[in-house]
Amino acid sequence: MTAQQAVTATLGRIPDGPATTVTGALFVDMANIRARYECLRCGRREGPVSGTDVVVAFVRSIRTDHHTRCLPQEPPS
Ligand SMILES: [Zn+2]
User: Fold this and answer.
1) Is 45 in contact with 36 (CB distance < 8 Å)?
2) Positive or negative, the Cα torsion across 73, 75, 76, 77?
3) Does residue 46 contact residue 37 with C-beta atoms inside 8 Å?
4) Ligand 1 centroid – CA 28 distance (Å)
5) Taking every pair of C-alpha atoms in the chain, what is the biggest distance, in angstroms?
6) What are the structural domain ranges in the chain?
7) pLDDT at 22
8) What whole-number distance in Å separates Cα of residue 53 and Cα of residue 55?
9) How many angstroms separate the alpha carbon of residue 29 from the centre of ligand 1?
């Protein structure tokens, strides 16, 4: 299995739930086998990470992992 196939297979297994609010963006660079996550709630970035195994694990878990440490910024008053 190529790195691209591994990442695509992982992305394909992420279940789509009911309508959800977009809280972040997961960027996957297939050409260079890199990934990063940008959270729209707190504005922080995770990654980038590189390497097939690391990217596959990152794609699989980053949204859950980040949620545990996401501290949304207070809206300006
Ligand atoms: Zn966050």
Assistant:
1) yes
2) negative
3) yes
4) 18
5) 51
6) 3-14+27-69
7) 81
8) 6
9) 21
